[in-house]
Amino acid sequence: MGEVKIGVIGGSGIYDIEGITEMRKQKIKTPFGDPSDAIVIGNLEAIPVAFLPRHGRGHFIAPSELNSRANIYALKSLGVEQIISISACGSLKEELKPRDIVIPDQLFDRTRQRPYSFFGEG
What mean pLDDT comes out for the span 43-48? Predict the structure, then answer.
């Protein structure tokens, strides 16, 4: 297996990626605490990938309790340089149908209870 450069973070209901071969699970400790779950490392169509379920396998972590810094740090410690994040969400636009893929160009994070940065108070 080559160096892992691509990480996938699965959202609600996505606890595995079909088609990953040569799988191994790796638990990683970070300075920010534990990530959501063990990271699955394997090959997807001959490309090394690392997969992490955002809410943990079985969805036991609430969105407001996610340790995003630990998740990102854990993937980075494996050599990941690009992350594909899969999320389940809704839309008020009728032209966006279920299962459409949307790439946002703006993000408003109105959460106030979690750290914004890896660097102190940000």
Answer: 94
Q: Are 118 and 73 in contact (CB under 8 A)?
A: yes
73-83 pLDDT, tens digit each: 999 999 999 99
The neighbour count for residue 96, using CB atoms within 10 Å, is 12
Q: How far apart are CA 83 and CA 97, in angstroms?
A: 24
pTM of the model: 0.83
- E-strand ranges in 32-114 read 39-44, 47-53, 82-85
The structure tokens listed for 111 are 């959460």
Domains of the chain: 1-122 (3.40.50.1580)
Contact by Cβ (8 Å): 21, 42: yes
Place of tokens 């997969």: 51
Q: Which residue from 88, 77, 86 is spatially nearest to 41, judged by alpha carbons?
A: 77
**Would you state the structure tokens that stand for residue 1, as one six-digit string?**
């297996």
Question: Strand 20-26 and strand 6-10: pairing?
Answer: unpaired
Using CA atoms, how far apart are residues 4 and 83, in angstroms rounded to an integer?
11
